[in-house]
Write a structure and sequence with these properties.
The chain has 245 residues and is an alpha+beta fold. The protein is built from nine helices and four strands, in the order ααβαααββαβααα. The chain has two domains: 8-39 and 170-196, no CATH class; 44-158, 2-Layer Sandwich (Alpha-Beta Plaits). It has a four-stranded antiparallel sheet.
């Protein structure tokens, strides 16, 4: 019984503060939308795929050992492609106004398990520059790896394309998160206000706070009802006086 009453009281609090909760939630969504569309700078992403595979001299079939060797080389190449030996040359050829560490922060290298292909991804606020940097890193890496590893086993199988849509920010996701967060904040404020409100509003509050039984309740009469009752009383008094005369 206590749980039912407690749940009922919670619903009453939410119902009473419903407009405030709605305003807080709507405000959070509006602020998030404004920040997402007008404050946060969009970030674009472009990727190029590189294959590690050395062709044999006699054009024979690939052996399992050769494939496994290339797979192991992928891990090494993932480190080399982000090294200053490659990035400094890319910066010089593209005349980029950044250091190798700054360029490194824009790059992500990933590969599937037991795959001879790894993907180089570049993020930038300019979609054309992101594609340009990705392709340039791939070309520089392909030429420099011959000097570094003394082997020619790198092939670019997919060039980076200019992205049409940014990967960040994500407006719908951000607004959905703002909806949930705003709703939680609104509900929290509603319960906080209810907790801080110590005014007595009805007879139930008197019974709970003072622990005294309520013997009677005086109803509130508005002005319209009072005027109606007064006019009715005057008419009744007039009739009584006429009958007495």
């Amino acid at each position: 019984m206590e749980e039912t009453i407690s749940l009922k009281e919670l619903m009453q609090v939410l119902r009473k503060r419903l407009s405030m909760i709605a305003l807080v939630t709507l405000g959070a969504m509006i602020v998030t939308a404004v920040v997402t569309y007008f404050v946060i700078t969009p970030v674009y992403e472009s990727s190029t795929q590189i294959l590690v595979n050395k062709a044999s001299d006699d054009q024979s079939m690939y052996t399992t050992n050769a494939v496994q060797t290339n797979v192991q080389l992928v891990n090494t190449y993932n480190v080399i492609i982000k090294s200053p030996a490659i990035l400094d040359k890319v910066i010089d050829e593209l005349n980029l106004k950044m250091t190798s560490d700054e360029l490194n922060s824009k790059i992500t290298v990933s590969s599937e398990q037991n795959s001879q292909v790894f993907t180089l991804t570049v993020r930038d606020t300019n979609p054309y520059m992101a594609a340009k940097i990705a392709n340039k890193i791939g070309n520089v890496f392909k030429s420099e790896i011959k000097k570094i590893m003394k082997v020619d086993n790198v092939t670019i199988i997919s060039k980076a394309q200019v992205a049409e849509k940014p990967v960040q920010p994500k407006p719908l996701l951000n607004i959905a998160i703002a909806l949930v967060v705003g709703l939680m904040i609104g509900i929290g404020i509603a319960f906080l206000l209810e907790y801080l409100d110590n005014t007595i509003k009805d007879e139930q509050d008197i019974e709970q706070i003072l622990e005294l039984p309520v013997l009677g309740v005086i109803g509130q009469i508005d002005d319209q009802e009072l005027n109606t009752a007064t006019r009715a009383g005057k008419k009744t008094k007039g009739k009584v006086e006429t009958v007495g005369a």
